[in-house]
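Re: weekly structure request thread

Next one in the queue (99 aa):
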Amino acid sequence: MANIKFVNENQEVIAADGANLRIKAIENRIDLYTLMGKMMNCGGYGQCGTCTVEIVEGLENVSPRTDVEIRKFKKKPDSYRLACQVIVNGEIAVKTKPS
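Done, posted below.
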């Protein structure tokens, strides 16, 4: 089992190993999107980039960056990810809507 802590929301969620971060956030009413993202998100296909999160703890417990993420976050730290592309395999802490 994986424990996901959403730092900004001060909420913890339990997930099975192999769970998708975006799906677990939505199931637990964690708001991943800014106003524009709410209107224009791609539904979890990794195309729009509106579900950006920062993994602040447990980066070793998530799947590697996808090619889409590598291109999108070329100038950002490795901890910046698209929630829809992250598979959780252990305990992590996440910041939603990082600046």
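The longest helix spans residues 21-27. The mean pLDDT is 94.
Next request, please.
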